[in-house]
Design a protein that fits this description.
The chain is of the alpha+beta class. 26% of the residues lie in helices and 33% in strands. It has one domain (4-151): Aminopeptidase, CATH 3.40.630.30.
Length: 171
């Protein structure tokens, strides 16, 4: 058996919603919210980590233009932690953001979620601020993190025309 990352489909919503509740409790997105995310803006991108029809994780990205993207959600089943599924999901989101021309990716993560923060830092995210009382209904704070997508260096351009100079005078 192996985990496959694939686009999230409407038929995945019940399984993802169940996983949402297990991971986020009272702050979980409802099945209706998840379904509306899939049917919403064209800039949204959701995927699941599927192992023989069982959803082990999921993630979402919003990249509508302007060079910025937002990680909307990342979740991995508790019993699958440590298997690299979260890392694969984050890598996929960053790749998709770059493919869409984004130069920055932002996310919010609970200030008390050290495990997720370590994952995001491993992929170059840095904390840039705190949103007090962001998560509801708990009122937990969110750490805002930012990742800069490195652009490949432009190839060196050969010198064109003009005079060449060297130490001591003209060439």
């Amino acid at each position: 058996m192996s985990v496959v990352l694939r686009p999230m489909a409407g038929s995945d919503v019940p399984a993802v919603a169940k996983l949402e509740v297990a991971l986020f409790g009272e702050e979980a997105w409802s099945p209706d919210m998840l379904a509306s995310e899939l049917a919403g803006e064209p800039g949204k991108y959701y995927l699941v980590a599927d192992e023989d029809g069982v959803i082990a994780g999921y993630a979402g990205l919003l990249a509508t233009g302007g060079g910025q993207a937002d990680v909307l959600t990342v979740g991995v089943a508790h019993d699958r932690w440590g298997e690299g599924i979260g890392a694969a999901l984050v890598e996929n989101l960053l790749t998709e953001a770059a493919r869409r021309g984004c130069t920055e990716v932002f996310l919010e993560v609970r200030t008390d979620n050290d495990r997720a923060q370590r994952l995001y830092r491993r992929y170059g995210f840095v904390g840039i601020g705190v949103r007090r009382g962001y998560y509801q209904p708990s009122g937990a704070d969110a750490l805002v993190m930012r990742h800069v997508i490195a652009r490949p260096a432009a190839p060196a351009r050969p010198a064109r025309g003009g005079r060449r100079w060297r130490r001591g005078g003209a060439a």
